[in-house]
Amino acid sequence: MKSRAPLWRALAAFAVVALSLLAALTTEPRLGLDLRGGTRIVLETRDSPTVKADAAATDRALEVLRQRVDALGVAEPSLARSGERRIVVELPGVQDPREAAKVIGRTAQLTFHSVEGVADRAADAPGADGSRTLPDPDAPGSFLRLGPPALTGAGVKDADTSFDTQGARGWSVSLSFHDDAGKSWARITGEAACQAPGDPARRVAIVLDDKVVSAPGMEQSVPCDTGITGGSAQITGGFGADEARDLAALVKGGALPVPVTTVEQSTVGPTLGADAIRASALAAVIGLVCTGVFITVVYRLLGLLATLALGLYGLISYAAVVTLGATLTLPGLAGFVLAIGIAVDANVLVFERAREEYLRPTARTTDLRRPLRVGFSKAWSAVADSHVTTLLAAGLLFVFASGPVKGFGVTLAIGVLASLVSAMLITRLFAEWALKWGAVRRRPGWTGMTMKGRVRTRLENRPPRLMHRRRRWLGICGGLLLVALAGIGVRGLEFGVEFTGGRLVQYTTEQTVDADTARQAVADAGFPRAVVQSSGDSDITVRITELTDDEQQTVKEALAEVGGGASVVRDDRIGPSLGNELRTHALIALAVAVAAQLAYLAVRFRWTFAVAAVASMVQDVLLVIGLFAWLGKPVDSVFLAALLTVVGYSVNDTVVVLDRLRELRRGAPRGAWPDLADQAVAQTLPRTVNTGMGALFVLVALAVLGGDSLADFSVALLAGVLLGIGSTVFTALPLAVILQSRRPERRREPRVRPQQRDKSGAVV
User: Fold this and answer.
1) Taking each helix axis from N to C terminus, what angle separates 427-434 and 5-26, rounded to the nearest 10 degrees?
2) Residue from 168, 133, 162, 169 nearest 148 by CA
3) What SS3 state is found at 571?
4) Cα(614)–Cα(593) distance, rounded to whole angstroms?
5) Three-state SS for 17?
6) Strands (E), 136-287
7) Which of 340, 443, 509, 763 is most buried as measured by Cβ atoms within 10 A of its Cβ?
8) What is the H or E stretch that residue 134 is in?
9) The predicted structure's pLDDT at residue 502
10) What pairs with residue 113 in β-bridges?
């Protein structure tokens, strides 16, 4: 009976591609602020004397902030609670965060007080009943003695701005009260109207966050005891248009139930995001084209079909992101590009297995589909292991990272799953369909399966004897490890602002400014301890521990003087507590990554193989960290993303070789471990080289075209890929051979079933 599996694969592939195309055409992507420009503010709630900053209080604060942001008129803002005490506010298009931060972060405790008199100094603390003494906004040097709050901001129904076109009041804020609050307003204004003209008690003070913003006196037209009726009031104070708008937003949103502090603030200019999208898209296209050309040359028709499947991988992964509503960030784009290399690896594993099956003397056949089916079957174990290890790294990024780097974890996971569909479903469908052609059956060389190649022939005739010098290779790797550790200990790590706290601002100037000139300009502006670096022709980066928004503006003006104008491209500010927390999370993520990989590999392989693979992985991680230490490159959250990806790549490469070693051991149970390991290296070397080339094309394109924000990321991954290839052969396999020799597997003796006889005595 003919199998229906190809039909089901065809239907599944058609459904996936059709749905992906529909989603891509009908759903707009959700771009992160690092791609569309804007400001991201992370606020942390704090306990007040009367309210504990728990999840419920943070949720109430979130709703207040949402009303304030809506009143500011920001298009498509995003506010969400993160954890129990943090609120993430994203404001697309907001390039100057100073005013937005002032409005969003203020507690906005609005109160209305009767004035009891004047004083010559402010009181040290409010009275038990809420009375206080505050500076008089209309008489500098004078103070008003205020009674207990007669009305709070909770009684305000609405607030709006108005402009006095007839008089000289300018901008003001008009208030409307709820019914009971309107009666309270009439009462306190009526009591004030009963006082003699010129008496301070004839005034009513409007206080916002312990500051008198307005203290109007009652006009003669306000009746005694009756007061101002109608449930409305007006706050005047010489406001400008922006000040009046912000005050109205604060009053309308209401008071925050608990105080908040800014622990992180990041601003990205719109041009940087647009450039990043173009650069990443170009890098993806170039990487995909170069990779496609390479695998087409190596695997001919099968390589060409795999390239078509890679194009559909891009469609499927993009559709998955927009359908899930995931935010697409700059590191997320890099995650897409990197997953191309993972998809190539799966195709290469299958094609190499198919080649081996076709070239096996006892398996020669005219049906080209049989070796292809065997290739998919035998490659599945290694493909599944490599995808699971990469998914573990992506999951850790999602749990422990924040902001754009979390987006990298999401898109990397989606890309890995999409690459699995691309390689194991769509490529297989294309290949089986093509191998039915009569022209292909008559010319099997077109498929690429018949090509043995000089490298493979030489390796089969003279397999390397690397494992017979295993202690030498381990010694060399140990020496490299000592060099890396020396770099970490001697040079130290240049932690980014995310891990240390502080502020990093990237400026672009109209004219080229060298680092010394920029450094002197910043020092003359009053910041001699700032770290100033110049990257490119007109990009200047200023890093300093403490820098307020006003001081940042001063630095910008100083650079504008020497550069003919300056604008902010990127502005990141991290509080010290958040920096410590992120650094701790980074260490936890690395520790969990090692433990998770060890646990998974211990399940999939014998413990000796798992220990060897994890030791190789740790070596790769330390070598990459040591390289960055010697180069003086920053260690930040993007570097953490690269490091966890290196973990996946390293284990991926090692798993393929160990899987082959295990297979060879099953075929030759009494074979010597060093000889079997050499055979495993020889048989998987074509796959290692071809996969490495595919990954290198993509990473070089990212390094060259991805800009400064992705350059260090690409360098770390380039180093990780190359080191991972070497550590598999020169660290993992020698360790596996040594451990297997010292802790050999117990041979299972076959159990002999006792013979059973029936009633006649015959053996059953």
Assistant:
1) 130
2) 133
3) strand
4) 10
5) helix
6) 143-146, 151-152, 156-164, 170-177, 204-208, 212-214, 232-239, 260-268
7) 340
8) strand 132-135
9) 81
10) 205
d(CA 409, CA 90) in angstroms, rounded, equals 20
Sign of the dihedral defined by the CA atoms of residues 356, 359, 364, 368, in that order = positive
Q: Three-state DSSP class for 90?
A: strand
CA distance 395 to 181: 52
pLDDT on residue 584:
79
Alpha-carbon span 344 to 287, nearest angstrom:
11
The pLDDT value recorded for residue 658 is 87
Q: What tokens appear for 424 in the block? A: 């194991």
3 state DSSP class of 228: coil
Long-range contacts of 4-10 (CB under 8 A, 24+ apart): 6/429, 6/432, 9/425, 9/428, 9/429, 10/429
Q: Which amino acid is at 499?
A: F
Q: How many CB atoms lie within 10 A of CB 368?
A: 23
- Given a cut of 70, whether residue 750 has pLDDT beyond it is no
What is the percent of the chain where pLDDT is above 90? 6
Token pair 């301070």: residue: 200
Provide φ and ψ at 267, rounded to 5°: -130, 135
CB contact at 8 A, 290 and 117? no
Q: What is the CA radius of gyration of the chain?
A: 34
CA angle 293, 449, 689 (to 5 degrees): 55
CA distance 59 to 85: 9
Q: Tokens in use for 217? A: 């006196």
Element (H, E) at 39: strand 38-45
Tokens of 580: 């410590």
Q: Which of 508, 581, 501, 576 is nearest to 543 (CA)?
A: 501
Q: How does DSSP assign 506-534, residue by residue?
A: EEEESS---HHHHHHHHHHTT-TT-EEEE
Q: Which residue has the higher pLDDT, 149 or 498?
A: 149
- Selection from 125-139, 148-162, 571-585 with the highest mean pLDDT: 148-162
Q: How many residues does the chain have?
A: 764
Alpha-carbon distance of 313 to 336, in angstroms, equals 10
Those residues whose C-beta lies under 8 Å from the C-beta of residue 472, and which sit 6 or more positions away, are none
Q: How far, in Å, CA of 260 to CA of 141, rounded?
A: 31
Dihedral of the CA atoms 601, 605, 609, 610 (nearest 10)? Answer: 20
Q: Which residue type sits at 471?
A: R
Strands 502-509 and 566-574: antiparallel
Nearest 5°: the CA angle 216, 222, 228 is 75
Q: pLDDT of 282-297, one tens digit each?
A: 877 887 788 888 888 8
